[in-house]
Fold this sequence. Notes:
This protein is α/β, with parallel strands linked by helices and 255 residues long.
Amino acid sequence: MPADDRATPAIQIFADANEVARAAALRFVELGRASVEARGRFSVALAGGSTPKRVYELLAGEDFGAGLDWSNVHVFFGDERCVPPDDADSNYRMANEALLSRVALPEENVHRMRGEGDAVANARLYEDELRGFFGEGAAWPDLDLVMLGMGDDGHTASLFPGTHALDARAAWVTANWVEKFDTYRVTLTAPAISHARHIMFIVTGAGKAERLQEVIHGAHDPHRLPSQLIRPPAGALAWFLDEAAAAKLSGKDEG
Length: 255
Ligand code: 6PG
């Protein structure tokens, strides 16, 4: 798929989670090289959770990451749990152990989303950091790539069903109270994500199949299925799926 592809959501289905990870790692490097060639840098927001960990591990290895000049890569985060960076639940810790600490990425190129302390203040700090990087006058951050996972409830980043963050229209980053976890999360908002040049959902496992069918082909119901909020006006949206997660995709849209 050419790096400048602006096609409708491209759904790619692979045999298993490892093949998905390999394909996602390859696409990451393709986009990284194209971004550096075009703009001298590659800005990417990493996904949290467990699925992308294998992708990050592959990128840290010789087979994939060697194809990228990490000195031109700027790493951001799509969301963060409200825990310290060394906590087992920290998205930063997962990415740092799997990738960031294993490649020649300048420290100043890692734009960590703070989880420790006050979530509202951390959201403001991160928005300031994004605006400092992408320009105070920018309408939205033009990240080259945003990597996303999807929960079995249809959430993505920390945009959970029925939560306040789903209605954000101007903020780039927000603190989102998630009742079911009884905690705040800090997250990029849906419009901030949607304005990326490329968006890559990575979804594997049978447990996601039912919801994935609803998100991709079901009725538009973003308060119940927040992943549906990710609709890039100009960017390219791609789904990297394994057969188990894609098992119930009907291929027909219901609106
Ligand atoms: C997080 C992620 C979240 C994740 C989904 C899927 O902070 O947990 O941002 O959106 O991508 O919950 O998680 P798994 O990959 O673990 O299934």
